[in-house]
Amino acid sequence: MTRYERLSSVGDSEHERLISYSTPSFSEDDLVSSSISTRRPSLVLRILQNFRGVWSLRATSHRSTHVKALRLLWCLALLSGEHVIYWVLIRRCSWPENVHWNTAHDNLQDRYRIAIIADPQLTDWYSYKQTGWLLTLVQTYTDLFMRRSFSKLHQTLKPDAVLFLGDLNDGGRDTVDEAVRAQNRGRFMERVFQSEYTAWNQEPVVVDAAADIDTHKGKEEDDGLLDNSEESTNNNRDTSQESVSRPTYLVNKDIPSTVQEREAVRRAGKSVRLYVAGNHDVGYGNNLIRKMALRFKRDFGALNYEIRLGNHSVVVLDTLSLSAEDPMIRNEAQMFLDQIGQETPTLPRILFTHVPLYRLDTTYCGQERESSRLIINEGGFQYHNMVNATLSREILDKIKPDMVFSGDDHDWCEIGHTVNRGEPSSGAYGAGDKSERLSLAPELTVPTFSFAQGVLQPGFVMLSLYNPNSLAGNNFAAVPSSSTGLPAAIVADSSSGYLARPSVAGTFEYDACMLPNQLRIYFVYIGLFVLSVGWILFERYRWMARGEFSKTLHFMTETPTIHDEEKWAGMETEPLGSTTATKMSSSSSLSGKRPNEDDAFEIRIEKELDSLRPLPPNASPRVAPLTPSPQMQSDRDDVSGTMRRSRNKVGGASPSFPATQSLAPLFFELSPSPSTSPLLSSLFWKTVGWDLGHVIMVAIPVYAILFLCSML
Fold first, then answer.
1. Under a CB-based contact definition with an 8 Å cutoff, are residues 445 and 411 in contact?
2. Residue ranges covered by each domain of the chain
3. CATH code, 99-505
4. Concatenated DSSP letters of 37-81
5. How far is CA 155 from the centre of its chain?
6. Are 249 and 209 a contacting pair, CB within 8 Å?
7. pTM higher than 0.90
8. What digits encode the pLDDT tens for the residues 472-481?
């Protein structure tokens, strides 16, 4: 049935004129389907309208205030967690100064500054027995943390030298494949510690004089891992006996020493690199692997050496080999220790060893230690927590260090040792009487540089050297304490456990610089994600509870009718006695002519039909309501009855709703009713998902940009 037949009380010519004035761009079928149609919309039309509804609601998520706030919050959190926190923590660190040092500008130039990094232990297959993408993921993020930390360290503090206290790779001693070893060396030298851009020496400064011969001999043998079998021990014995009769190390480069040379290196953004071998690099004691030791010498330099830095003698000692009972393993280190013990110190000596020296199991490590567990005298395969007591005393008495730095433990530990500065009256070590001139030699165990090695907050140590008068050593008074076995200068207040450092004028000062707690940063990200979800749920619940979704639904489900303002651009309303008539302005171009007084009846009929359509919530009617005459009431009943019968016949919309609502997208069929909780609505959960998606769509690109900036 056409619209003309439904409006039977109106003349055909009058209907034609009405339609021509009102909908010049719509056909008759369009008008029927857009206003009082009883036919179900086509599948294509429903899909298009559903897409329109989805897109419109997604647009509301994009414009929501809480979504904008969360986007900003995530950008700030990612920028802080990925970059700013590194700058802030490292900029808080400054090179330590002794109050007795001259702080004039020229004297400040004489400071020699060393950054000490311990146990980076680059994560590899050995660390957590991982493979595939999981191993790649762990390697990427542990490397990224150390890369960022070292980059900020080097750019901010500008050290003269960087010394690595061993355990450079976690599985170094167990990596047999040469290709994997070369790959790990590249990770260490270029990806993490950026030697190409920041190292003054990419080749070792101190080399082993016999390393080349031993390396070539090793290549002629089996490329596999050499064990401590009888055959390999015999082969090693011949090589070791040859190395005893010649120097064990050779300084092949002149390290910048003058103020002008060091300043030029710093301006170039570079520093001298020195290395100490760790048990993860070469093994420990009787299980030390000679082939891995040769690899280390070839890649990073000699295992035992002494060089001069900042008017100090820097002594690197291989306590891993010294801890072996097999003389064939310990010969090289023992020879170096004996030679240096025969020399009288001319400069203050600073000893670097990977394994800490002996102390009582109850020795307090200081307030900076993170773990409550102390360093105790125990060990296992390829490791031991400390050098044994006899060897420790031999090292202290022969080298007579003013300061000792060690690693291996991964946590901060600060203790003191007594050193006899007197000389034996006769005989070898341990024979004859000694003049008791005891002094203090502090030992600092440096925390790990990686966040994946058992501590929450890694760090490094800054060491300042200043010896303008070329003093031979430091005299830190130490009186043994009967209660703890440690010098009284160390145990200043046994009740509080405070660890005192010597306050007298010395030639060196050290301090720790702590790095970000990376796990805490990840927990902040997790907490922020939970906060984001909670905030979105809260805001969308309020949005649904207040009924604000209905405004969006009305906008999306409203279909064009003959009374749309865009199509009646020239319509004006004015009162006509007790009713309101509508007329077209002369500027209207809908039909090319203007309705006259004869159109009053048709216009009233259209207003009656318009009154059947619902208006948006809290919206006022477009025109004043009419007071229908008996004839108009009859016409209205005829039209309404025809619409109801048509709907019931085709199973269309409910009689309580106008025909325009029959085109509402299926997406909104589960919109909540006043008696239904918003949490049970699909619309609620979809809008929550869209809000979260709009936040993630900003957070992920920002994180990707920050990640790429760190890798450049």
1. yes
2. 3-73+532-685, 99-505
3. 3.60.21
4. --SPPPHHHHHHHHHHHHHHHHHHHHH-HHHHHHHHHHHHHHHII
5. 20
6. yes
7. no
8. 888 887 655 5
